[in-house]
Amino acid sequence: MKIKIIQRIVPSYRRVFFDKLYNFYGDNFKVYTSFNIGTGPLMAKSKSKFPWLAEIGKVYEVPGICWQTGAFKLKIEKNDVIIIEGSVRIISNFIIILKAYIVGAKLIWWGHYLSASSKPLLAGIRHKFMKKIPYILFYTDHEINRFIKDHERTLNLFSLNNGIDIEKIKKNRKAYSTSDRDIDILFLGRISTKANASILLQALNEEKCLNYTATFLGAQDEHECSKITDEINMLSLTKRVTVVKGSSLEEIVSKYANRAKIFCYPGQVGLSLLHAMGYGLPCIVHNDESKQMPEFCAFEENKTGISFEQNNPGSLALAINTALLSPDLGKMSSSCISVVESKYTLDLMKENFINMINSIK
Q1: Residue 82: what are its φ and ψ, rounded to 5°?
Q2: Sign of the C-alpha dihedral, residues 247, 250, 252, 256?
Q3: C-alpha span between 160 and 142 (Å, rounded)
Q4: Is 35 in contact with 113 (CB distance < 8 Å)?
Q5: Which helix (H) or strand (E) holds 127?
């Protein structure tokens, strides 16, 4: 049996996960990807570091659809487990699906059910198509429950529960005590459109937040940095807000996470939520689940943080102030760590993946 995953790109946060699966399955585990988009060029240069990595061919995109060359040539055999990226926009996937059906390989659709980026029309098409695929792998258990409720299908549904490298965090994490911390609010993640960082800046100018400081850790390039810096200057927040270039190194992230009292992500939060919770930071996020990424399901109101009304700076300011004045921050911190370590780690993702493969052999 060979396990073959086909993806357009390999995000940096998945590399350790794939390393763990390769260590378990050896050369029977491969990830086929393209080297011409996203992180592809960098992956190509360091290909020797990833024995599980293989090039399938270039990706060509036009508005709304894309084609991954090499789909015709990918060798698929009867005992293979084929895992495709769950998107109806990837037309070449239909070739892989057809080949898998013809030879009798196991076929798994790996993707989200609903997320902040889901468009109603495409989501409807995707859901109808997903129901026809023999096996579905979701990001979280919560998505399985939603899918069952909406479609009344219960067989061959699996989830990874997207997680983080908690061992690296534990090596760098310090005990939580607000008296030892000088950053009131930490934003962690790319300062992209989905982050909706402007709402946090506006909230800092609300009366309830005039004395609080914030650090934005995650600017990826000069464009992101200059855009938010201009807004900080416009709102006269230069003395209270700091912008720091993003890093994937836990040693750098920890320098700021260990100084912060709470985490705030005003937009569509995903893995950044789990990352912050891994450091024991009580979280402030908006409460519209339909406009969040799948990882939002790890958030529990008044247990791991406090929510606010989406796109409402006043509501966010109230949530921030309530959290920072709460005598329960220590309890929330402990709950954040407990939730992540019990359900959302890379080792648990590995176990979930192996259990899925074992159940469909």
Answers
A1: -105, 125
A2: positive
A3: 11
A4: no
A5: helix 120-130
Write out the two tokens for 80: 């293979």
Q: What is the pLDDT of residues 167-221, one digit of tens each?
A: 999 999 999 999 999 999 999 998 988 999 999 999 999 999 999 999 999 877 7
Query: 81, 57 in Cβ contact below 8 A?
Result: no
Q: β-strands 65-68, 59-62: how paired?
A: antiparallel
Rounded alpha-carbon distances, angstroms, from residue 186 to 59, 166, 218, 279 = 36, 19, 10, 11
What are 110-128's pLDDT values in tens digits? 998 877 766 677 778 888 8
Contacts 24+ apart (CB under 8 A), 56-59: 56/6, 56/32, 58/34, 59/8, 59/34
| pLDDT for residue 118 | 66
DSSP letters spanning 215-246: EEEEE-SHHHHHHHHHHHHHTT-TTTEEEEE-
Query: Token pair of 82, please?
Result: 């084929």
For residue 88 the two structure tokens come to: 């109806």
| Lowest model confidence (mean pLDDT) among 140-154, 157-171, 311-325 | 140-154
Residue 42 to residue 218: CA distance in whole angstroms? 20
What does pTM read for this prediction? 0.93
**What is the identity of the amino acid at 336?**
C
The amino acid sitting at 236 is S
Most distant CA pair in the chain, distance: 65
3-state secondary structure of 259: coil
Over residues 21-51, the pLDDT tens digits come to 999 999 999 999 999 887 778 777 778 889 9
Which residues fall within 8 angstroms of residue 158, CB to CB, at 6 or more apart? 108, 135, 136, 137, 138, 144, 352, 355, 356, 359
